[in-house]
Amino acid sequence: MARPIRATISAPALRHNYAQAKAAAPRSRVLAVVKANGYGHGLDRVARSLGPVVDGFGTLEIEGAVRLRESGFAGEIVLLEGFFEASELAVIAGARLATSVHSEEQLRMLHASPPPTPIDIYLKINTGMNRLGIAPRAAKGALDRIRESGAAKSITLMTHFANADGPAGVAEAMRRFEEATQGLALPRSLANSAAIFAHPETHADTVREGVALYGATPFADRSAEQLGLKPVMTLTSQVIAVQELEPGDTVGYGSTFRCDRAMRIGVVACGYADGYPRHAPSGTPVVVGGVRTKTVGRVSMDMITVDLKPVSHARVGTPVTLWGEGLPIDEVAVASGTVGYELMCAVMPRVPIIEVA
Ligand SMILES: *Cc1c(COP(=O)(O)O)cnc(C)c1O
Questions:
Q1: What are the EC numbers (predicted)?
Q2: Which of 24, 178, 159 is closest to 80 using CA atoms?
Q3: Is 108 annotated as a binding residue?
């Protein structure tokens, strides 16, 4: 039998989480964000599952966007980071992609080498994230320049929030956005997952659902379950060895874990080369044989070690859930000092995928 690690990807859960965003933002179009290979779930797989139901897709990688179009998807596909060189404008026009325009350099490219046919443009305004975006005071000037270029088939006003998930909230960003766009009769797109669920005043014409689509929470203080989301990816493996240890024995590289009692330790076929976080400390939750227990010792390349005390029935071959159905990815992320986003994006190509249609 092959090494037992698997990632099971549920298409019904994806469609459910998309429907949750539609229910939260009932008057808006909902773009399914599929950058980074569908947050690690597989761009083509996610597109196949959602294509028949979504209003559109948002992504960053132009090759994937073109492939999505060639696969027959007829709706909107938005390049959220825009283009990086002028030669991409012809590709964007050819595949009927929409693109964000967030910088002076991009405005210059639009003028110097306009696309062969007009394209759909999302003009991105910086409301405090200070990564991408035109300064609010320069927004109307940028809009004029896009119009003068003749490159735009449509223009949507866009921003991305720095604090939609946290206590600072969106009020200041909304104030800046409204000031910058006052009087402009153009469609608007502001909300990511956090704003979809926490800030209905941001919904406007088009929202952009990323992490919530995959069943993880964007919030520190509201679980995915509380948001009505279902896990899309379940990472499972098996116990491949059992060690009976004495008090004082240690486990793993660096001997960082020392038994304070006689312990049964399970060795699980899953390590950082599968995408499990190496910085997950002893005590990170894991489910063995349907019972919740904890990791002990360092995560190594191909294995983790787990305490079998609560699972007396565990033996070689006992199933293990690393995250997903039965153990929220967000709990593993919190224990590891990161977010669900990073864990799901990091699952490695060597992990075989099982699709649930
Ligand atoms: C990634 C991304 C999103 C989705 O964010 P989530 O927090 O995953 O919902 C939305 N908008 C833009 C511009 C993005 O880059």
A1: 5.1.1.1
A2: 159
A3: no
